[in-house]
Amino acid sequence: MHFLVAARPSLPDIGRVTDSALQGAGVLLVEDEPLLRKQVAAALEQHDADVTAVGTLDEARRMIQSLPFDFALLDVNLPDGLGTDLLSEGVFSPNTAVVVCTAEGGVQGAVEAIKNGAQDYLLKPVDPAVLPLVLHRAKASRQSARLAEHERHDPNATGERLFFGDALGLFRQQLDKIIAADERLGSNLPPVLLEGETGTGKTSIARWLHHHGPRAAGPLVEVNCPALPETLAESELFGHERGAFTDAKAARMGLFEAAKGGTLFLDELASLPLGLQAKVLKAIEDKRIRRLGGNREIDVDVRIIAASNRDLGQAVADGQFRDDLHHRLSLFRLVIPPLRERGRDILKLANQLLAQLCRRHRIAAKPISAEGQARLLSHAWPGNVRELSHELERTIVFEEGDEWAFAALPAPVGTAANEGDSSGALNPGFDFPKEGFSLDATIDELIRRAIDQAGGNVSAAARLLGVPRDYIRYRQKDGRK
58, 81 in Cβ contact below 8 A? Predict the structure, then answer.
């Protein structure tokens, strides 16, 4: 919470926060002194705020029922009750940032108001020049709360250390060029498009770009687009007003607004319906959105990073992605190489991940044996870095011995351990052993790899294999994986 003292901010600070916080914002002013009400309203309107000024609780309740507000400025002592009663009644939308104005002796009441949901308080007499800064801070507090709510439901929204290695040297240079361009532009940053197979680290790259760019101090909002129910995706991204649909009992800030001043990462953007893709494009181009059921446009200055495990050019040709959105995203387009193309960097990455996993599980670190290194280098890694991380974790939990051997992985072709192993048939240069091998086991291995590459999506795995979805279900039901 913020407790504002009498110090007046400098005029440059006021101007900067006014542009981002008050322009076009709806403000409810509840003040029973006519002269002060007029002065405060005029000060806010000078900054292009849309002010609704009332003098009683009853009038305030009617306005809240009929209009959406970004801010509410409440006097405590009113003719028909306490302004803080509105907080205890829960009439404000979660998107409304509330600031309480109180006389010097009413500080304890203001503290109670903050406990009931107010973001800040001011002591009377109110200096109109201070209001923009106070409201800006209150809005930032509301924005942080919306971001925290999103992160509670997204366990992947955490930072991590990123390993580049020699094989990603050119890729790292491209990232550095984007950061340099961002520093020159300062604001109005163009979108970034990340393409690569499932598990190559697109989310990690998006986090790296945010934390190394000029908006590192702003929020990073990560959205897993395939996880958004089609009926709620628009509301989740753009927010909604009260009554926009049956269950919309209160207005709600969307994730575009929650990311204001920072970065919005749209993972697997191609999974969104074409109609919603058009609205995303408009938001990117105009930097303004309109909540579902709303009639007022809201400024959303965000940096968009989009990711896809599909070739979006092909998706456009297939009619599954908008051509205009593809062009808009492709100014900064980066393709992340799969793990199987990174050579001995796989071993360096494995050692880094092993160190992290051993610390997490409180297991003593051990070296990778020569056999283990050969298995890591020869494996195709259809699930890329994600599959590698899972395999490492499984190994340190279940494998015994003085070194990590990764015995659960197929042995390289030509080794004794590979003789008679049907999974070796998936490696180049395989020769059929004289005693034969299991075709069933090979089919099951292909299915497993396809499901891993498809991120667990059976329908997508069936398309990769060119078989009906029911075929995979039948094999799994029959006790195979």
Answer: no
- Taking every pair of C-alpha atoms in the chain, what is the biggest distance, in angstroms? 99
**Pseudo-torsion of CA 352, 353, 355, 358, nearest 10°?**
-170
Q: Which CATH class is domain 166-337?
A: alpha beta
Same fold, 11-142 and 166-337: yes
Please write the tens of the pLDDT for every residue from 243-266.
Answer: 777 777 777 788 998 888 899 999
Q: Give domain 340-422's CATH architecture.
A: Orthogonal Bundle (1.10)
Using the CB atoms, write b or e for 440-476: b if 16+ within 10 Å. Answer: eebbbbbbbbbbbbbbeebebbbebbebeeeebeebe
Which whole-number Å values give the CA distances from 461 to 75, 335, 458, 470, in the listed order?
A: 61, 22, 5, 11
Q: Tell me which fold the domain 11-142 belongs to.
A: Rossmann fold (3.40.50)
Global confidence as pTM: 0.60
Residue 158: strand, helix, or coil: coil
The two three-digit tokens of residue 65, written as one number: 């029922």
- Say which amino acid occupies 85: D
- DSSP assigned state of 338: P
Residues 6+ apart with CB under 8 A from 183: 213, 214
pLDDT tens digits, 370-409: 989 988 988 888 889 989 999 999 898 888 889 989 988 8
Distance CA 79, CA 115 (A): 24
What residues form DSSP beta bridges with 240? 252, 292
Sheet strand arrangement including 263-267: 220-224, 263-267, 303-308, 192-195, 332-335
Do 31 and 43 meet the contact criterion of CB atoms below 8 Å apart?
Answer: no
Residue boundaries of the structural domains of the chain: 11-142, 166-337, 340-422, 438-481
